[in-house]
Amino acid sequence: MQTRKILLEEDEMPRKWYNILADIKMNPPVGLDGKPINPEDLAPVFPMNLIEQEVSTERWIDIPEPVLDVLHIWRPAPLVRAISLEKALDTPAKIYFKNESLSPPGSHKANTAIPQAYYNKEFGIKRITTETGAGQWGSALSFACSQFGLECKVFMVKISFEQKPYRKSMMAAWGGNCIPSPSMETKAGREALEKNPDAPGSLGIAISEAIEAAVTDETGKTRYALGSVLNHVMLHQTIIGLEAKKQFEKIGEYPDVIIGCAGGGSNFAGLALPFVLDKLNGKKIDIYPVEPLGCPTLTKAPFVYDYGDTAAYTPLLPMHSLGHDFMPPPFHAGGLRYHGMAPIVSQLVAEGIFEPKAVSQLAAYDAGVMAARSEGIIPAPETNHALAAVIDEAKKAKEEGREKVIVFTWSGHGLLDLTAYDKYFANQLKSFALSEEEMLKSEKVFENYPKPQLLKSH
Ligand SMILES: *Cc1c(COP(=O)(O)O)cnc(C)c1O
Questions:
Q1: pLDDT, tens digit (0-9, with 9 covering 90-100), for 176-220
Q2: 382 C-beta closer than 6 A to ligand 1
Q3: Which of 25, 85, 274, 304 could pair with 446 in a Cys bridge, judged by C-beta atoms 3.0 to 4.6 Å apart?
Q4: Out of 3.40.50.970, 3.40.50.1100, 3.50.50.60, 3.40.190.10, which CATH number does the structure's domain 64-106+232-441 have?
Q5: Can you tell me which atom of ligand 1 is nearest the CA of 107?
Q6: For 339-392, how does the pLDDT look when each residue is reduced to its tens digit (9 = 90+)?
Q7: Which regions of 244-315 does DSSP assign to beta strands (E)?
Q8: Tell me, what's the pLDDT at 372?
Q9: Which atom of ligand 1 is found nearest the CA of 412?
Q10: Using a 6 Å cutoff on CB, does residue 393 contact ligand 1?
Q11: Crossing angle for the helix pair 343-350 and 266-280, nearest 10 degrees?
């Protein structure tokens, strides 16, 4: 009998996060004048303990005991050998995945929601605001807030709010309050509605609303939380890769290929970053972030300074970006519709350490259905993008007759995304790709912004 799951005991779970900022150079966030912003400028938005983490260059950061306690609800996450998928593909490749669908809200996002709620609580914050696209981050943060006794207010992109009523129910079950964005509650929302009363909403607008709601709260006890993109989020997600490293050590293997779908970049980076240092030191590993052709941030968009949100409330971040007012076409992977990408991931792509891939919506669902019918877990639409690249690699390994070790993040389950599967089975899913014209339009946005540098970390 072949072993399917490589498990760790609770006391084998990593007790520190890995901070890549100790080992690579990064462009700082700046203002329009090109001058680095002062971390204190972020104090109305985030609690100071998280801001310190955002800019820290300490290589290892202790995971606080109360955070470890809550993570133990579902972690350590198994490293699973996808034996049945390998069989279905008749590949000599060994395919492994970290099963991040096992958290209570059903995705990797709980890995950062828990520490973010904890640090806010420690800092004396009573209420957290956030945005959510498909609803995964809103549910993860509602869950985390319920663990630490905080209020949670979620601005959910309107089109998803209407299409996915059960995400809102999940948030309500954990005590979270979810409203559709654009809303009348903020200036950013009212402006968007004035322009278009039927606006379907976007992540960029919802982020602006959530930041505004936090900084305008007169009690001073509200802060904002972001589920991806920022350095501290990447840090918290490294628990995925650190566990995977230990699990591979147990079985005497090491990955040749590392894959993750990339929306803001966090589940991908969480798996990949603990292996990056080995690559910088000469180890041969192929590392692929995978994005949708309909929102091709890493494969098509330039490495620039851009705002993280539509209303330009955030500092300028060094990232691959399609432009902060970019509206992606209506494909079904809410978590992959962000206009930008984590600065850490963007920097490592610009420097050639990560090699991004883009896949079509149809290829992603083909892969997802194959995975569901072999491994049994119905993947999130976002995970399907990673799976499409994994299957390509496994086929390549077969052509080359190589026993490659492939590992990827199974970032979440798709049990609340079944409408999209229904559409796929009814042949109603389309593939979207961006035209050159649309790309050029978005590039204009950056003309007058400062430009980030390549810093050669290696
Ligand atoms: C949010 C989400 C993503 C995309 O976000 P990243 O920060 O790129 O990881 C991917 N998969 C699932 C299941 C998600 O919920």
A1: 999 999 999 999 999 999 999 998 888 889 999 999 999 999 999
A2: yes
A3: 304
A4: 3.40.50.1100
A5: 13
A6: 999 999 999 999 999 999 999 999 999 999 999 999 999 999 999 999 999 999
A7: 257-261, 286-292, 303-307
A8: 98
A9: 13
A10: no
A11: 40
Residue 457 has pLDDT above 70, yes or no: no
CB of 181 within 6 A of ligand 1: the answer is no
Q: Whose CA is nearest to atom 1 of ligand 1?
A: 335
Which atom belonging to ligand 1 lies closest to the Cα atom of 106? Answer: 13
SS3 419: helix
Determine the distance separating the centroid of ligand 1 and the alpha carbon of 261, expressed in angstroms: 7
- Closest residue CA from atom 2 of ligand 1: 335
HEC-encoded secondary structure of 161-189: HHHCHHHHHHHHHCCCEEEEECCCCCHHH
Which residue bears the tokens 């904002």? 224
Write down the pTM of the prediction: 0.97
Token pair recorded at residue 254: 């090491």
CATH of domain 43-58+108-231: 3.40.50.1100
Domain boundaries, the chain: 43-58+108-231, 64-106+232-441
CB distance 311 to 380 below 8 Å: no
**Cβ count within 10 A of residue 398:** 15
CA of 84 to the centre of ligand 1 (A): 24
Q: Would strands 5-6 and 79-81 be described as parallel, antiparallel, or unpaired?
A: antiparallel
Asked whether the domain spanning 64-106+232-441 has the same topology as the one spanning 43-58+108-231, the reply is: yes
Do the beta carbons of residue 279 and residue 429 sit within 8 Å? no
> 315 CB less than 6 Å from ligand 1?
no
Confidence tier at 458 by pLDDT (50, 70, 90): low
Ligand 1 centre distance from Cα of residue 128 (Å): 20
